[in-house]
Design a protein that fits this description.
With 168 residues, the chain is mainly alpha-helical. 60% of the residues lie in helices and 0% in strands. It has helices at residues 3-15, 21-32, 37-53, 57-67, 72-84, 87-95, 119-128, 133-136, 155-159, 161-167.
Length: 168
């Protein structure tokens, strides 16, 4: 499993979803079960790399604006949603979170997708019949981030005027 295969699986699951989370998750899990246990673990490793890389103050600010607030857990679920949207959306958002203002809301069920965090685990369980998934995956350290915005001042407006205009 490599990053291109990873993103191809994400794109295929999204294409098959009709913008419904349950359908996308089921599609992804179904596709992953066609891979070996090791490849599923590699998929999860790649997912976690992108998941950790999206742990930034700027994306948290964007999630806060889009969702009308954003707790720690909410930011986790937002980042899972972001990955579920595919490579182009993900990479654009990392470069410039304001690109999320271009998302067609009619094509989004929600901006949080908690269940997507467990796709690898679910596929591994189906494939192997084992409950040792978390014993077999590597955890990654989160970088320290300095929150460079406040909900109490106009820093969000200055950072992301298009997001504010669209979602507030």
């Amino acid at each position: 499993m490599n990053e291109n295969e990873f993103w191809a699986l994400i794109e295929k699951s999204k294409k098959n979803s009709d913008y419904k989370f349950e359908k996308q998750l089921n599609s992804l899990v179904s596709e992953l079960t066609n891979y070996t246990e090791q490849e599923i673990l590699e998929f999860d490793k790649i997912f976690n790399k992108f998941y950790v890389n999206s742990y930034t103050s700027e994306l948290w600010a964007a999630a806060y604006i889009i969702n009308g607030g954003c707790s720690d857990d909410g930011f986790d679920y937002f980042r899972a949603w972001l990955i579920s949207q595919g490579r182009a959306v993900y990479e654009s958002a990392l470069k410039n979170p304001e690109s999320l203002a271009d998302i067609n809301e009619e094509e989004v069920e929600d901006f949080e997708f908690e269940e997507f965090l467990y796709a690898s685990r679910n596929a591994y369980k189906i494939k192997s019949g084992k409950d040792d998934f978390y014993d077999r995956v590597e955890s990654q350290e989160y970088p320290e981030i300095n929150i460079n915005w406040s909900e109490d001042d106009d820093s969000l407006q200055k950072m992301f005027p298009r997001l504010i205009e669209k979602y507030w």
